[in-house]
């Protein structure tokens, strides 16, 4: 057998909080004006109380509300698949498993937190959400989730993607969200995730019926994603497999990585590997410091690896990995050497993504291609040494709305910068 599913009633009923397992206790975010530690009241204009509590929680487990589980069951538990055809093509003794998060309604892991965030906002009486989106994955996930709870949604989409990648904009609108290009006040600027966050936060703080939702980076977002790793752990046991030697995921803001990797943090023999683009090398070349989450400096200062909040990454195809900063939880694990990080250029990513498509059949999102490139290298290293390594990676999204990127690669138009 090479595919393990769990029945719908085996979906995890609590999220895993990594905070009690961190080698160093987390440092607090700082208020952008006073530079004093942020207090919950500072965040109240942006987020519902339940999410603020999760943001600062040190409880080891946090219950998932039944209403959230009911929606997640539309596609969860997601299957764990053994990539035997890829193993064979590589001639590796390694056993390669992936967790298929591409099966969610919006096609990526982001729907896991979108549903939880929409639920808590609706429960506390919010009727409208604002957010930003880069390539559109987060916007689509939140638009689907907002529709489940009758919330209005306004999405500030990075202008370059708004023009070049219409399909996710159309998906957002299909689920009922409104989309505008960002930055709103500079119509000639291609935009960045940092400036789109500024637009969405400004809109939110100006209205009492509105909250803001972020698709990555924050502790509560990574918490919601731990469903991925919890299910994977159970499915590996179901497959009669031991704990993986290495868990691999791409890292933009850190949410799908945290989601699959955090439940393995207490397992000391398991290596955790973040994969980022060489053109936006936050963990591998950034500095560990307090920095803003957005370009305009409206968000709290967070302790994280950062390339600087005014860094505008080159326009690579893995749009979801173009962010100047990283999750404080992921950053802290990398700083304490509990997690490793590597960076790959675009060409190598597409080469691996295409090998995966031709062997396993699935066409991955370019973001996901980063994890596949690192998986291939780990598997080839195992071939050198003859080690029966167990590799688990996160198949965080499909690439059906990214086919133009494959066209660019195949026809030699890939930006050398990446
Ligand atoms: C958004 C996205 C990412 C990057 O975000 P993380 O928060 O780092 O997970 C990676 N892969 C896919 C498919 C995405 O949609």
UniProtKB/TrEMBL annotation:
The alphabetical list of record keywords is: Amino-acid biosynthesis, Aromatic amino acid biosynthesis, Lyase, Pyridoxal phosphate, Tryptophan biosynthesis
* Function of the molecule: The beta subunit is responsible for the synthesis of L-tryptophan from indole and L-serine.
What Gene3D superfamilies does its record include? Answer: 3.40.50.1100
Q: Which GO terms describe its cellular component?
A: cytoplasm
Name of protein: Tryptophan synthase beta chain
Q: Which cofactor does it need?
A: pyridoxal 5'-phosphate
State which pathway it belongs to.
Amino-acid biosynthesis; L-tryptophan biosynthesis; L-tryptophan from chorismate: step 5/5
Q: Which positions does the record annotate as the modified residue N6-(pyridoxal phosphate)lysine?
A: 110
Task: Report the sequence similarity comment from the record.
Answer: Belongs to the TrpB family.
Pfam families recorded: PALP
HAMAP family of this UniProt entry? Trp_synth_beta (MF_00133)
What is the species listed in this Swiss-Prot or TrEMBL entry?
Pseudonocardia alni (Amycolata alni)
Assembly and interactions?
A: Tetramer of two alpha and two beta chains.
* Listed EC numbers: 4.2.1.20
Q: What is the lineage of its organism?
A: Bacteria, Bacillati, Actinomycetota, Actinomycetes, Pseudonocardiales
What broad class of enzyme is this? lyase
Tryptophan synthase beta chain-like PALP domain spans which residues?
A: 73-397
């Amino acid at each position: 057998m090479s595919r393990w599913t769990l029945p719908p009633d085996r979906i995890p009923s609590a999220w895993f909080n990594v905070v009690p397992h961190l080698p160093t206790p987390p440092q607090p975010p700082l208020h952008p004006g006073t530079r004093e530690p942020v207090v919950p009241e500072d965040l109240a204009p942006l987020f519902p109380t339940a999410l603020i509590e999760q943001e600062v929680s040190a409880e080891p487990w946090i219950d998932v509300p039944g209403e959230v589980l009911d929606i997640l069951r539309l596609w969860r538990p997601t299957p764990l698949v053994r990539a035997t055809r890829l193993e064979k093509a590589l001639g590796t003794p390694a056993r390669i498993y992936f967790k298929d998060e591409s099966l969610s309604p919006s096609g990526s892991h982001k729907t896991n937190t979108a549903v939880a965030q929409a639920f808590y906002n609706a429960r506390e009486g919010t009727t409208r959400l604002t957010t930003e989106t880069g390539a559109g994955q987060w916007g689509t996930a939140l638009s689907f989730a907002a529709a489940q709870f009758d919330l209005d949604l306004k999405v500030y989409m990075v202008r370059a993607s708004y023009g070049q990648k219409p399909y996710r904009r159309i998906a957002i609108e299909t689920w009922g969200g409104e989309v505008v290009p960002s930055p709103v006040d500079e119509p000639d600027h291609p935009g960045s995730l940092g400036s789109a966050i500024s637009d969405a936060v400004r809109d939110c703080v100006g209205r009492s019926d509105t909250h803001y939702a972020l698709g990555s980076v924050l502790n509560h977002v990574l918490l919601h994603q731990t469903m991925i790793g919890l299910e994977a752990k159970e499915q590996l046991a179901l497959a009669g497999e031991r704990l993986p030697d290495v868990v691999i995921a791409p890292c933009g803001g850190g949410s799908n990585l945290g989601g699959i990797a955090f439940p393995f943090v207490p397992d000391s023999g398991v290596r955790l590997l973040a994969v980022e683009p060489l053109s936006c090398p936050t963990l591998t070349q950034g500095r560990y410091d307090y920095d803003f989450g957005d370009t305009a400096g409206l968000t709290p200062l967070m302790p994280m690896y950062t390339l600087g909040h005014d860094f505008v990454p080159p326009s690579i195809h893995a749009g979801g990995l173009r962010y100047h900063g990283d999750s404080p939880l992921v950053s802290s694990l990398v700083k304490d050497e509990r997690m490793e990080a590597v960076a790959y250029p675009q060409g190598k990513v597409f080469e691996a993504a295409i090998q995966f498509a031709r062997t396993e059949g699935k066409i991955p999102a370019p973001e996901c291609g980063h994890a596949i490139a690192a998986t291939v290298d780990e598997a080839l290293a195992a071939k050198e040494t003859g080690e029966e390594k167990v590799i688990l990676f996160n198949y965080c999204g499909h690439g059906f709305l990214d086919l133009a990127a494959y066209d660019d690669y195949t026809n030699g138009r890939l930006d050398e910068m990446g």
